[in-house]
Amino acid sequence: MHFTPLLRSEWLKIRTLRSLPGALLALFAATTAFSAIAGVSDASDPGFDPLFMALSGVLPGQIAAIAFGAMAVSSEFHPGALRLTLAAVPRRGRWFAAKAAVVAVPALLVGLVTALAALLAGRAGLGAAAGGLGAGEQVRGVVGCGVYLMLMALFAAGIAALLRSGVATLALLVPFVLVVSFVIGDATGTVADFLPDKAGQLVLRQTPEGTLGPWSGLAVTALWTAAALLAGAWSVRRRDA
């Protein structure tokens, strides 16, 4: 099968599995709502970062992006589903590339729209406290946020292919990004800047502190994502359907 019809078939799966559009809707709603709530919080802290505060809804909202990537791949491991797919597309690497593409594109588009809505909601709550944000910083925050959410969705997709389970993937990644990453960060200092979530979140800060900058941090997340996808592709190619 040529790649274009393969993309269409994988996109059809994404559209028709109701939990997947629901995860993207949850990504938008949760991120925007939490950013709006954060925007009206106290901004008197000397270390206050208005860009990060306005986009802070991404921290809980990324769980929906992770769920989207994990469920998009793990749905193939229901009994018999992957065998049917591979009967139509024997080249497993090509199929997994198409799956990754149909995870990446909607995650990026929804991520960009979500980041813009979150920024506007957060700025509205911050009021005059957001006055110091420059146009370039806000554009970088929105674009970087969209790319970060896409990378986290793809990271989850790679892990789901490796573990062959959406539940196991969520059980691993959700506690990691909500709890473990913060604990490691408190204990190890700048080492935490190289964790997949912490590194990518530097692009959300007006003035990142530490070893990495906003784009180099996002590049570290991209490397983690590439490693997860390669591990997932290896699992798909080597293990029985």
SSE inventory with pairings:
Layout: H1 3-16, H2 19-39, H3 50-54, H4 58-74, H5 81-88, H6 92-126, H7 135-163, H8 166-188, H9 196-201, H10 214-238
Protein model, in words:
- Helix content is 76%, strand content 0%.
- It has helices spanning 3-16, 19-39, 50-54, 58-74, 81-88, 92-126, 135-163, 166-188, 196-201, 214-238.
- α4 packs antiparallel against α8 and α7 runs parallel beside α10 (214-238).
Essential attributes:
mainly alpha, single chain, 241 residues
Which stretches are low in confidence, meaning pLDDT under 50 for 5 or more residues running? none
- Give a quick account of the main beta sheet: strands, pairing sense, barrel closure: none
Mean pLDDT: 86
The level of helicity is over 70%
General form: globular
N-to-C SSE string, H for helix and E for strand: HHHHHHHHHH
Q: In angstroms, what separates the terminal alpha carbons?
A: 19 Å
How would you classify the helix and strand content by structural class? mainly alpha
Number of strands: 0
- Which percent range describes the beta-strand content? under 5%
